Amino acid sequence: MERTLVLVRHGQSEWNLKNLFTGWKDPGLTDVGVKEAHEAGRKLKAEGITFDRAFTSNLSRAQKTLDIILGELGQTDLKVVRDEALNERDYGDLSGLNKDEARVKWGEEQVHIWRRSYDIAPPGGESLRDTLARTLPYYVREILPEVMSGKRVIVTAHGNSLRALIMVLEGHTQDSIIAREVETGVPMIYTLGPDSRVVSHREP
Ligand SMILES: O=C(O)[C@H](O)COP(=O)(O)O
Q: Which domain holds residue 118?
């Protein structure tokens, strides 16, 4: 049985372009972000992949990315499930601040720890562990059963909500997840085995 799960980080957002911490804030896609989403859809089409189920967050950049991908696949009628469990990591007090200015204020190392560590939360926000604590139960409860029943599933979400899921899917440790970057608009195609573990992963 085919068990396909595709994860896509939204295309470039207005705040990615401005280099601002975004988290639960809701900026739209830039023109580049829209292009990246079309490109993601075209890549999936070239792979011959269509979907039976689609999940996204409560934030417009991920929703719009999904709409564009489904448009490229001729699947605009597919029902989309939106849930804040898939939202970006809450960046707390950093939300809206410039990432370079934050490095000047708090130092390169501290900002990197807030952005990439597993268990150190930015002030007033969520660590990756906190993010995992909401994305993983949602994945197990809502998404995984669909994949395991042979439905082809797409999830469009965010750099850190996806890093949380990827940590489990790719079997990263708290150390190895630090270096796992997720690019905007690049489809990550996973095939799962009968025990729900990943047997293959590619990024066309
Ligand atoms: O929320 C944000 O600012 C970005 O989408 C992801 O941020 P990061 O690259 O700092 O993890």
A: 14-202
